[in-house]
Amino acid sequence: MKTKQEQLESLKTRIKTIEHQLARIKRRIETIKLQYPLTVKTVATLTESQEEKFDSALYRFSQVQKLMVSKVFPLFLEVAGEPVEDFTFIDKLNYLERMNVIESADAWIELRKLRNEIAHDYEEGTSDRHVRILSAFLKAIPVLEGALHRIQQRISHF
C-alpha cells in the first residue's frame, strides 16, 4: 500500500497528464476554426482535416474523462481521507459534488454517456447526432477544467 505522500505524488502526476491533454484538445479546437453555432450545415462543411482534428480531440477527451473518473477522483478521495472505497460510481460523484469538487454529479453522468457515445463510432450516425456530440463535447471542456482546478486547489493544502 502506498503512503499518503506517494498517493499525492501519483495524483499530481495524473493531474499534469490531464492538463497536458486538455491543452492539446484546446489547441486542436482552435485550429479547426469552427463556425458557431454548430448546425447540421456547418458540420457538413467541415473539411477532412477539420474532421481529423475533431476526431483527435474527441479521442483525447474520452481519455481525459476516463482518467478523471477512474483514477483522479478515486485517488483524490483516498488522499483526502474520505471513506468511499465501497461507494458506487454515482455515490462517488454525489460525494464529490457535496465536497464542491465537481459542480454537478448529473453533469459527470452525462459526460460518461458522451464518452460512451463517442466510443461507439459516432461517424456512422446522423448529422444531427454529430452536431449534438460535438456541441456537448465543446461544453464539456470547461466542466473537466473546473473539476481539475478545484482538485488542484484542494491538494495544495494537503
The CATH class turns out to be Mainly Alpha
Q: Architecture in CATH? A: Up-down Bundle
> What is the overall number of helices?
6
Number of strands: 0
Counting structural domains, the number is: 1
CATH superfamily: Nucleotidyltransferases  domain 2
Give, in order, the helices and strands. HHHHHH
Ends distance: 19 Å
Structural class assignment:
mainly alpha
**What is the global morphology?**
elongated
What Rg do the Cα atoms give? 17 Å
Give the strand content: under 5%
Sheet bearing the most strands, described? Answer: none
CATH topology category name: Four Helix Bundle (Hemerythrin (Met), subunit A)
Write down the overall mean pLDDT: 90
Uncertain residue ranges: none
- Helical fraction equals over 70%
Notable features of this structure?
Four Helix Bundle (Hemerythrin (Met), subunit A); single chain; mainly alpha; 158 residues
Walk me through the topology:
Blueprint (H helix, E strand, L loop, with lengths): L3 H29 L7 H5 L3 H32 L9 H10 L6 H15 L7 H29 L3
Describe this structure in words.
The protein is an all-alpha fold. The chain has one domain (4-155): Nucleotidyltransferases  domain 2 (Four Helix Bundle (Hemerythrin (Met), subunit A), Up-down Bundle). Helices cover 76% and strands 0% of the residues. It is built from six helices and no strands. Helix 1 (4-32) runs antiparallel to helix 3 (48-79). The chain is elongated, with a radius of gyration of 17 Å.
